[in-house]
UniProtKB/TrEMBL annotation:
<keyword id="KW-0444">Lipid biosynthesis</keyword>
<feature type="transmembrane region" description="Helical">
    <location>
        <begin position="208"/>
        <end position="234"/>
    </location>
</feature>
<feature type="transmembrane region" description="Helical">
    <location>
        <begin position="66"/>
        <end position="86"/>
    </location>
</feature>
<dbReference type="GO" id="GO:0005789">
    <property type="term" value="C:endoplasmic reticulum membrane"/>
</dbReference>
<dbReference type="Pfam" id="PF01151">
    <property type="entry name" value="ELO"/>
</dbReference>
<feature type="transmembrane region" description="Helical">
    <location>
        <begin position="150"/>
        <end position="168"/>
    </location>
</feature>
<dbReference type="GO" id="GO:0034625">
    <property type="term" value="P:fatty acid elongation, monounsaturated fatty acid"/>
</dbReference>
<dbReference type="InterPro" id="IPR002076">
    <property type="entry name" value="ELO_fam"/>
</dbReference>
<keyword id="KW-0472">Membrane</keyword>
<dbReference type="GO" id="GO:0019367">
    <property type="term" value="P:fatty acid elongation, saturated fatty acid"/>
</dbReference>
<keyword id="KW-0275">Fatty acid biosynthesis</keyword>
<keyword id="KW-0276">Fatty acid metabolism</keyword>
<dbReference type="GO" id="GO:0030148">
    <property type="term" value="P:sphingolipid biosynthetic process"/>
</dbReference>
<keyword id="KW-0808">Transferase</keyword>
<feature type="transmembrane region" description="Helical">
    <location>
        <begin position="174"/>
        <end position="196"/>
    </location>
</feature>
<dbReference type="GO" id="GO:0009922">
    <property type="term" value="F:fatty acid elongase activity"/>
</dbReference>
<dbReference type="GO" id="GO:0042761">
    <property type="term" value="P:very long-chain fatty acid biosynthetic process"/>
</dbReference>
Amino acid sequence: MKGVPALTIWQKLKLFYEGVLRNGDKRTDSWLLVYSPVPISFIFLWYLVIIWVGPKLMEKRQPVNLKPVLIVYNFAMVCLSAYMFYEFTASAWLARYSLLCQPVDYSDSPLATRMASVCWWFYFSKVIELSDTIFFILRKKNSQLTFLHIYHHATMIFNWWAGVKFVAGGQSFLIGLINSLVHVVMYLYYGLAALGPSVSKYLWWKRYLTSLQLVSICLFFSFKTFSLLTIPLLSSKVRHFNILTWHKVFQIPSLGNFYVSVLLYL
């Protein structure tokens, strides 16, 4: 409109930020690391700083022996992942969720709140899992600081912040359910491997762990594609979340290459 000054970039960003705060799920606003994207953004920035500075600080130092820490951490993550898998399954089953088209229930009913709660736990577990990278650095396992590893952790924390902030429940439950099941097996493997050679010799099923990850991503991609292309019932917030989480498909080639390397090693 003539005579009305154009908004500056800063003003546009401010309006966008205020809209983010205003339009979230009111049930989850008071929960830890949900109301504003600022705290999780700072955590991510610190994560990047650690990735950049950590290997340099460890360059002339001996690897840190983290065996007791890794055993406790990995088996704790098995328990947390198993709890989340149970909660996703039970909440969805009791609420008669559809696998293909499930809108978000924004009510304060016990089942809707239970589903929102486990979505938050899933989001918070992704923050906890940033510790994986710190352990790699302290143990001087820098070869494991791959693009796939960093990309996965970075995208998961932001995607699930958005999920809990705007669409805590609904169709997104399927992502958490599948991922939690995979992580039960994955952290069980890591926990057993941390016990040492006496147990490691029984971990012949390592190759199947990567297969499980590939299958889970393909299932995820199939469901998301179906939801985006054929289902008009999903709200715009849910459809935007589906688009945000499509990044998982780009992990398929990287996991495929890793699977081949595991087979060659074995």
